[in-house]
Specification:
The protein is 38% helix and 15% strand. It has 278 residues and is of the alpha/beta class. The chain has two domains: 116 residues, Rossmann fold, CATH 3.40.50; 124 residues, Alpha-Beta Complex (Glutamyl-tRNA Synthetase, domain 3), CATH 3.90.800.10. The strands form four sheets. It has a three-stranded parallel β-sheet with strand order 1-2-3. Helix 7 packs across helix 8. The radius of gyration is 20 Å and the shape is globular. Bound molecules: glutamic acid. The site of glutamic acid has 7 residues, from loops.
């Protein structure tokens, strides 16, 4: 298939485990089958959680698995200017507002919402004098995307669709996630904005990633529309589960690829276990 470009985009916040290997192999093998390109992107905007040894281990572990990727690898921390430009563009069009709330404030606002079960936070800019007072006092703030403003700008979300391989055209529902943060207080950018900008700048045509990021696609589809960026095709693969039926996750201490290697598991064995031909 001409022009097939996909990517694996890990965050160096820990060592890779089987779930990552499955995701990386799924994308890599799809690119190979399509005679396309496979990119590796390091999602390291969160300087408080990302560590150089984890990044070095990503390269090691993926090479051990038998993957090859193009260089240079895009490291998000080296491209903050790109995200800043996109953020400014959205801000100038009145699509963002400053949010001074803490995480706890947001959780409380959600809890006390009139409909009880409202999961998604929606807010608005503070009155200008109050905002100016807080800025002068040095209070940190995040930038949130205003769904209300986005809806006005696009004349509704009805035209926002994306293609999910195996499922067909999906109508995006970006409002499910509420007014997402596009620039965090501490790092000046946030996940959805960086990913959307990068996928477009890198010419990614197929986003292949875990089902856990399906909801994220709805938000990213909205950002594509607002920023005039192309929409890739998506494939959210199943999530691997361990013997206990729970999905592999860093926080549950899933066995790392390093440790598999250390106890003598070969890459060929792991690939076979994950359902890939060696
Ligand atoms: N960096 C994200 C993660 O490690 C993945 C982002 C993506 O594939 O869009 O979960």
């Amino acid at each position: 298939m001409a022009g097939f470009v996909t990517r694996f985009a890990p965050s160096p916040t820990g060592y890779l485990h089987r779930g990552h290997a499955f995701s990386a192999l799924t994308a890599f093998e799809a690119a190979r089958a399509a005679h396309g390109r496979f990119l590796l992107r390091i999602e390291d905007i969160d300087a408080t959680r990302c560590r150089p040894p984890f990044e070095a281990a990503i390269y090691d572990d993926l090479a051990w698995l038998g993957l090859a990727w193009e260089s240079p690898v895009r490291r998000q921390s080296e491209h903050l200017g790109d995200y800043g430009r996109a953020l400014r563009e959205l801000g100038e069009r009145g699509l963002l507002y400053r949010c001074f709330r803490t995480c706890r404030d947001v959780a409380q606002a959600i809890e006390s919402a009139p409909h009880g079960a409202m999961e998604a936070f929606r807010g608005e800019a503070l009155p200008p004098d109050e905002e100016a007072r807080r800025i002068a006092a040095g209070q940190p703030y995040a930038w949130r995307l205003s769904l209300a403003a986005a809806e006005r700008a696009l004349g509704g979300f009805g035209a926002l669709t994306f293609e999910e391989i195996g499922e067909g055209l999906i109508a995006a529902q970006p409002d499910l996630g509420g007014d997402v943060v596009l620039a965090r207080k501490d790092v000046g950018v946030a996940y959805h904005l960086a990913v959307t900008v990068d996928d477009a700048l890198q010419g990614v045509t197929q986003v292949i990633r875990g089902r856990d990021l399906f909801e994220a696609t709805h938000v990213q589809r909205l950002l594509q529309a607002l920023l005039g960026l192309p929409t890739p095709t998506y494939r959210h693969h199943r999530l691997l589960t361990g013997p206990d039926g729970k999905r592999f996750a860093k926080r549950d201490g899933a066995e790392t690829l390093r440790s598999l290697r250390d106890r003598g598991v070969t890459a060929a064995e792991l690939r076979a276990e994950l359902g890939f031909q060696t």
